[in-house]
Amino acid sequence: MRRRDVYKQDAFDNYADRLLKHWAFELPLPVNGRARLFVQIAQETKDPILWLNVVLAILRWSFRNLILEPIDIALQPVLYFSDLDMYPTYLTHKGINQHFLCQ
Amino acid sequence: MVGKNLVEDKLDRDLILELQAGELDALGEIYDRHRHLVYRTALAITCDPDMAADLLQEVFLRLHRFAERIDPSRPLQPWLYRMTVNLSYTWIKRKSRWMRYINEMAERIVTERRPASPHNLAERDESWRWVRQAILALPVQQRMVVVLYYINDLSIKEISEILEIPVGTVKSRLHYARKVLKKQLGIHREVLRTVFYETT
User: Fold this and answer.
1) Which band of pLDDT confidence, cut at 50, 70 and 90, is reported for residue A27?
2) Of A48, A26, A56, nearest to B128 (Cα)?
3) For a Cys-Cys bond, which of A37, A87, A97, B117 suits A91, CB 3.0-4.6 Å?
4) Looking at residue A48, what is its pLDDT?
């Protein structure tokens, strides 16, 4: 892939082109990159199931303990008490029974 | 040039097919062929040699991981560019300003104590530091376009395809980036020119 069309080509463009290229090519490539790559691939392919299971276990634990449980605790009074208080007595289970028993 | 590219594409295609068949040697071959492209792109965008080295590994790890999804009939270079640019962008976005500041401070302290490596020598050079600062002065979106255009010699159309943005957006980003670069490099132009001609 080489530049085929040029958007703008002036003195600065040429200057920046050569300067930036020179700067980028100045730094040497990291050594043993290929060996490091193969080591990482070997690690990835060695225990993929174990690694995945650990991650899933952490996610499950975090979701249950850090998200679900606090929400559950925070909403308990609302879910289990407030609604009951809003209804007339005869509409609660106890109230309904008493209401029909009296009739 | 066109003939050479065709041969390279053909070989890339064969290597991808071999990689898809599970041959790791093919990945090594692809790595040797394209590591310069990936490393220099990552380095120019992040301006961090250590991070560029990590990104180089990450790009080829992903190539191995997602080899099945790559279409061997299409050239590999745009995929490599896209992956490098995306990973570099993610890294820059993750790294907050204060973290960058702390790292730079730490780097300065360590650089003063550790023996000079080729990276340090290049970074210590006052002229290259100005170039690095000029690149860092660009917003990330503009920096990516500048790196692909000037350093990797890609055309406007190729850049628009890699970054998945319209051609007009590439042109406007390049236009504004050139303004910033002119301002940043302008002051040190004479110094840089001297150094540039000395080294060539």
Assistant:
1) confident
2) A26
3) A87
4) 61
Cα(B157)–Cα(B155) distance, rounded to whole angstroms? 5
Residues B112-144: tens digit of each pLDDT? 554 444 455 445 556 678 888 888 889 989 999
Q: How far is CA B178 from CA A11, A48, B78, in A?
A: 12, 46, 24
Question: Closest approach of chain A CAs to the CA of B155, in angstroms?
Answer: 4
Separation of alpha carbons A65 and B91, rounded Å:
30
* Chain B residue at shortest CA distance from A30: B53
B39 in Cβ contact with B53 (< 8 Å): yes
Q: Which one of A5, A22, A37 has the shortest CB-CB distance to B155?
A: A5
Q: How much is the mean pLDDT over chain A?
A: 73
Least Cα distance to B82 among B45, B47, B51, B31 occurs for B45
